[in-house]
């Protein structure tokens, strides 16, 4: 029997990519695109214009999944260093901070908080190349989403819920994957439908969301993760979905609005209404 070598190699690479990306993808593709889609409706016209050269014809929703798609790409960065950009594991009583020295180069980033601040620094720096800014925008869009998934700030001992086995309607999975994908996909909505359903123009709520920093987003996620650890049984069913789906929707909504606020802060100095309260956390 003859084997199509080209097809076999492509299939092998596809399978490898699937398995390589299961540990710390946040929200799955749909969730990330929901975040990007919501952000698109809250960025200013000046920000939209400023983003054009960095988006290269794509939307925020389209680029939101790029860092996950690239994790099986060749090269030392993608194979050995990029995965640590997606999470920050901590003990139960931990507080979050980051080392500014780790944000000087993309290779020196050790966690999601440093990855966010590295990306911000590159986008703020007029000396950054177009390629560097395109890279950083794609990561920033993705990491804002990641930072709102509770188990990207979970416990190190179980790798952010990856080692906590659960059964979702008799399908074996883990706690991280449950929150990444299954609770989102259970709604049976496209990302555009999901974004439309949970988006908001409530000015008071938006103001509350924007009065925050990347550190506080991860602290929120960490505290949620600790609550979820305690309330999760091995067998997941309707009552769990009823209780936790509103949390998923809130976190996606917050991520989209905060992403827009962050982009407005970076790209539209005239926009006062929807800028983030980042103050001293953003440094060149």
Question: Summary?
Answer:
The chain has one domain: P1 Nuclease.
Q: Uncertain segments of ≥5 residues (pLDDT<50)?
A: 1-24
Radius of gyration in whole Å, from Cα? 19 Å
Order of helices and strands: HHHHHHHHEEHHHHEH
Kindly report the CATH topology: P1 Nuclease
Proportion in β-strands = under 5%
Mean pLDDT: 88
Give the CATH superfamily: P1 Nuclease
What form results from the Cα inertia axes? globular
**How many distinct folded domains?**
1
Q: Terminal Cα separation, in Å?
A: 60 Å
Q: Structural class, please?
A: mainly alpha
Assign the CATH class. Answer: Mainly Alpha
Q: How many strands appear in the DSSP assignment?
A: 3
Percent of residues in helices comes to 55-70%
Describe the biggest sheet?
Answer: 3 strands, mixed
Instruction: Count the DSSP helices.
Output: 13
Strand line-up across the major sheet: 2-1-3
Based on the structure given, which CATH architecture is correct? Orthogonal Bundle
Pfam families: S1-P1_nuclease (PF02265)
GO molecular function: endonuclease activity; hydrolase activity, acting on ester bonds; metal ion binding; nucleic acid binding
Keywords: Disulfide bond, Endonuclease, Glycoprotein, Hydrolase, Metal-binding, Nuclease, Signal
Organism: Pseudoalteromonas haloplanktis
């Amino acid at each position: 029997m003859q084997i199509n070598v080209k097809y076999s190699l492509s299939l092998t690479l596809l399978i490898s990519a699937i398995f390589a990306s299961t540990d710390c993808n946040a929200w799955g593709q749909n969730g990330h695109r929901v975040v990007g889609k919501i952000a698109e409706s809250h960025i200013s016209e000046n920000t939209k214009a400023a983003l054009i050269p960095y988006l290269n014809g794509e939307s925020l929703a389209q680029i939101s999944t790029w860092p996950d798609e690239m994790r099986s790409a060749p090269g030392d960065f993608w194979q050995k260093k990029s995965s640590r950009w997606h999470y920050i594991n901590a003990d139960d009583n931990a507080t979050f901070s980051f080392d500014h020295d780790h944000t000087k180069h993309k290779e020196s980033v050790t966690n999601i908080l440093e990855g966010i601040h590295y990306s911000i620094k590159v986008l703020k720096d007029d000396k950054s190349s177009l390629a560097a800014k395109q890279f950083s925008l794609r990561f920033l869009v993705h990491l804002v989403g990641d930072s709102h998934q509770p188990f990207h700030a979970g416990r190190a001992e179980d790798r952010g819920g990856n080692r906590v086995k659960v059964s979702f309607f008799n399908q074996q999975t883990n706690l991280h994957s449950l929150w990444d994908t299954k609770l989102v996909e259970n709604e049976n909505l496209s990302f555009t439908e999901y974004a439309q359903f949970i988006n908001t123009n409530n000015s008071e709520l938006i103001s509350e969301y924007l009065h925050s920093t990347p550190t506080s987003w991860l602290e929120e996620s960490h505290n949620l993760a600790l609550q979820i650890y305690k309330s999760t049984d091995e067998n997941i069913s309707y009552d769990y979905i009823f209780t936790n789906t509103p949390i998923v929707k809130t976190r996606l909504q917050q991520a989209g609005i905060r992403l827009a606020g962050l982009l407005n802060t970076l790209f539209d100095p005239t926009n006062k209404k929807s800028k983030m309260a980042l103050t001293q956390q953003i440094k060149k």
